[in-house]
């Protein structure tokens, strides 16, 4: 993904997809998992930006769906079957994707907040005041900040060191943080809008502190806080990862509910961060060791909670093999039967990525 973004940059364009793992992930894998990423809020999902595909089917035939048209209603939209099907229906070998013009102005704001309610209020204000230039809206809680700064990130808000997991680079720790990014074509215009946005959220008491990156280096250091969380997690022990979609007001409530479930495991930490702009929570539980009874306590609690909230147990990472049996928490039995029928039609010998996504049986 990084190589492709660098390539299209030479022609003044940007890939609509951006991930923390862009230096290692492959385009075919991005398509097959319907990766969402950091800027879905601005550029939308791959179902919208992918114009066409070439796919090798299970019997070796090459299905040519490679179009560059934005409108094409001649029959069933077959390309959508392969976007997000985790390689179970075919192997993506080529893609045509609509790339947006590369922004000449990229601005980043970082805010400290006292509550998750304030996070949702700031999101609402960002949508109204930043409008067409808003490209990303990420949140992380205090546990995430302590973890990220423990392994090299620097908190730009406050200078007073705190004790505990945060080390000397933590600075002032707020309960929640928000990262806001804009993409535009006029730096002066964008900064004027951001200055007004910052003034409004501070004056209304929604944000306690904030900073606007003055240059690309400062912006990258702020992004490092957010992207450093997933890199730091495995260094702390066994990690239980959950990628869920929820109504925005409920996202951090799940984190609090899981904390309440795990009070008997004092060594376990529960962290929440993610793409609050599109309702995608990355819930992570870290334990010094992998305890089977700990996982049994987490599952199916998380899946049932998400299902009761009318959410999705897989927002952008897919189900794979580990969570295939949990599909019924989001999809109805009839929907799963339809998926099985499509799988049998396109792959009757079950040779493409077997045991993934669909439950056994």
Report a brief summary of the structure.
The chain has 361 residues and is α+β, with helices and mostly antiparallel strands. It has helices at 2-9, 27-33, 40-43, 46-49, 79-82, 116-130, 142-150, 187-203, 216-232, 251-261, 292-298, 301-308, 333-346, and strands spanning 13-14, 50-56, 62-65, 91-97, 100-101, 105-113, 134-141, 176-184, 209-212, 238-245, 269-275, 280-287.
Oligomeric state, counting identical vs distinct chains? single chain
Range of strand content: 15-25%
Percent range for helical residues? 25-40%
Content-based structural category: alpha+beta
The largest sheet is: 7 strands, antiparallel
Specify the overall morphology: globular
Physical arrangement of strands within the biggest beta sheet: 9-6-8-7-11-12-10
Element order: H for helix, E for strand: HEHHHEEHEEEHEHEHEHEHEEHHH
Number of strands: 12
Rounded to an integer, what's the Rg over CA atoms?
Answer: 21 Å
Mean pLDDT over the full residue set: 92
Helical run tally? 13
Which terms would index this structure?
361 residues; alpha+beta; seven-stranded antiparallel sheet; three-stranded antiparallel sheet; 13 helices; 35% helix; 21% strand
